[in-house]
Amino acid sequence: MADTLRPESASGVLEAVKWAAAEEVSFDVRGAGSKTALGRPMSDEHILDLSALSGIDAYEPGELLLVARPGTPISEIERVLAEQHQQLQFEPADLGPLLDGEAEQGTLGGAIACNLGGPRRIKSGAARDHILGFDAVSGRGEVFKAGGRVVKNVTGFDLSKLMAGSYGTLAVMTEINIKVMPAPEKTRTVLVAWPPSGVHDHGAMAAMSEAMNSSHEVSAAAHLPGAVAMRSNVDYVSGAGGAVTAIRVEGPGPSVDHRCRELKSLLGIHGEVEELHSKNSDTLWREVRDAAYFTNIADRQIWRVSVAPASGSQVALRILDGHPGEVFYDCGGGLIWAALNPAEDACETVVRAAAASVSGHATLIRADAKVRARVPVFQPQPAPLAKLSRQVKEAFDPRGILNPGRMYEEA
């Protein structure tokens, strides 16, 4: 049975790390554990559970600042922000159900550590672009902090961006300062229902490009092929009878109304257009954000492929020609979610070759633990970058105490 330490304060985290260094053991660092299956499998001999390190320490709506501990549930933060008509601009994904867990279990620390972002990334960036500062304990057993509580304090080498996407391999964050933003007054989504005549995804890439390159300030653009669209909980989408392209606009009411009219006029040449209002719009973009269309396909391996938006459909076609499965597109075609039939090599050769053909990269999001132990989960790094990554790991965690091997076998 795993030996679990559950500190309730930053000093408790420091004591735990110092104990691990003295005993020469390592930790599987986790919050609520909703993303334990994301990344290479970890030994569960010793767990550093941060779930008790929870709570909002400061919230200043007028300053657009929220300070919280890493174990604070994202759902709690979103409820507090909603009361002041504010939001987390980076739309952190809830991957719990996709990873065979429960919904709404994700924490702030996990969202930052995994650099999770949603469909608004094309306009507002990922989690790393919204963290102002943090307090942490390094693998050396040293307390340190970086950044501050206002943007102007983030100068010099930005350690906040280094922590974002490090999957807990460098340090244990004990407090996080996040920039929040006003929620939009109105949200609408323009849908294009493509004729059921075998229209290829290439047309959708062109339509999304037209929308994003227009003056209408699009905040999200996604395309759902017919079989994927049918799984939506939004009737207009599931009942479209074929592929659907979705374009989101947000902002003041009159502006949103005007932009929706213009977008429908612009995109109407591609197919029948429809408009989703607040509730249905929110439902659709949560589905896209969480890759909910692949949640109940338990036997599929899930890949997340990042490419230039114009290349999205070409890369997807190459993947599906090489291996059976399904895809849908986010970020204007620049993010491909692929659910592929399982294979001994986790389809790695096909997926990574397709991504590499356009200088993209791919991450294995969901697969059996044995596969994730054998196949690189994250994009293999060129030798110079891999060397630099090892040097950074050694600088922060020379004894390999924190999540060793979570990202790469050698680090």
Descriptive notes:
The strands form 5 sheets. A 5-stranded antiparallel β-sheet has the order 4-5-9-7-8. It starts with a strand and ends in a 15-residue tail after the last helix. The chain has 411 residues and is an alpha+beta fold. It has 14 helices and 18 strands.
Q: Return the CATH architecture of the largest domain.
A: 2-Layer Sandwich
Number of helices: 14
Identify the strand order in the major beta sheet: 4-5-9-7-8
- What is the CATH topology of the largest domain? Uridine Diphospho-n-acetylenolpyruvylglucosamine Reductase, domain 3
Unreliable stretches (pLDDT < 50, length at least 5) are none
Shape: globular
The total beta strand count reads: 18
Largest sheet: 5 strands, antiparallel
Number of domain modules = 3
Secondary structure category:
alpha+beta
Proportion of residues in β-strands: 15-25%
User: What is the averaged pLDDT score?
Assistant: 93
Task: Describe this structure in a few short sentences.
With 411 residues, the chain is of the alpha+beta class. It folds into three domains: 49-182, Uridine Diphospho-n-acetylenolpyruvylglucosamine Reductase, domain 3, CATH 3.30.465; 186-289, Alpha-Beta Plaits, CATH 3.30.70; 292-374, 2-Layer Sandwich (Alpha-Beta Plaits). The protein has helices at 10-23, 74-83, 108-113, 121-124, 159-163, 201-212, 226-229, 235-238, 253-267, 278-289, 312-322, 348-356, 369-374, 383-396, and strands at 3-5, 28-30, 46-49, 56-60, 65-68, 86-87, 131-138, 143-147, 171-179, 181-182, 186-193, 218-224, 244-251, 272-276, 301-306, 325-330, 335-340, 361-366.
